[in-house]
Amino acid sequence: MGVQRVSARLATAVLAVAVGGGLGAVVLSPGAAGAATRTVSATPMTAVVVTRAAAASCSTGKYQKQVEGYLKKIGGYGTVSVDGKQSTKDCAAIKKFQTRFGIKPAAGLAGPTTYGVAKRLAETKTSKCNAKKSGYTFCVDLTHQTTWVMKNGKVYAKPTVTRTGMKGYRTPSGTFKINKRAKKEWSDPYDVWLPYWQRFVGGRGFHQTTTYIHDAWRGSHGCVNLLPADAQKYYKIGKIGMTVKVIGRRSGT
């Protein structure tokens, strides 16, 4: 491969990826009107050119510092600096968090949805479920709109997001038992399939969401809506007779 010149005035960065060993040289030299250019010797290698915008960290969101703090408290999404300044590591951690909880777009911007989800998860207290000391307990926190699974009194599946009954269709609090399961259940009242269905009280149960779970104005008709990956996990864990504990109350219901 020959020599490529990329103008810095086009705000591009050159990334060299070695092929078969050996590193090419990157040289800065004056260009037209004093602008610097990069000369990349790509023998014996392949040069990959990406825009500086793509390589740089993503934009700083309105809730940058708050999200950083919540992600640090929750843990598991990478290193974050709680300083309100976006960095490459912060961006990667936020993107990972957004991807995990189905927040769109997963672009690393600490916007209101990301802030709200992170806050709910960080403020969830798993001990309030008062789970059984033996066996499994499925926990639902209506106040924070979160859910998790306990095993032998300890957290087995970490808190994740849910969406429960809206006004007029409130999900009741209390202690229940899973009494019906089906990989796909048809809802007669609402003419829709409910994937990974696990009923626990009346016509209410866990199932995969059929709409975007983060639409704040939405609510279920009393069921506990789950993200696809969580619905599958809950279905794999669940069995008839397992305990479901629902605590708190959703705001506005």
From TrEMBL:
Keywords of the record: Cell shape, Cell wall biogenesis/degradation, Peptidoglycan synthesis, Transferase
GO (cellular component) term, any one: extracellular region
Swiss-Prot/TrEMBL GO biological process terms: cell wall organization; peptidoglycan-protein cross-linking; regulation of cell shape
Keyword Oxidoreductase set for record: no
Keyword Iron tagged: no
Domain L,D-TPase catalytic, residue spans: 136-247
Gene3D superfamilies assigned: L,D-transpeptidase catalytic domain-like, PGBD-like superfamily/PGBD
Pfam families linked to this entry: YkuD
Active site: H214 (proton donor/acceptor), C223 (nucleophile)
SUPFAM superfamilies: L,D-transpeptidase catalytic domain-like, PGBD-like
UniProt pathway annotation: Cell wall biogenesis; peptidoglycan biosynthesis
InterPro entries the UniProt entry points to: LD-transpeptidase, LD_TPept_cat_dom, PGBD-like_sf, PGBDSf, Transpep_catalytic_dom
MF terms in GO: peptidoglycan L,D-transpeptidase activity; transferase activity
Protein name: Murein L,D-transpeptidase
Provenance organism: Actinoplanes nipponensis
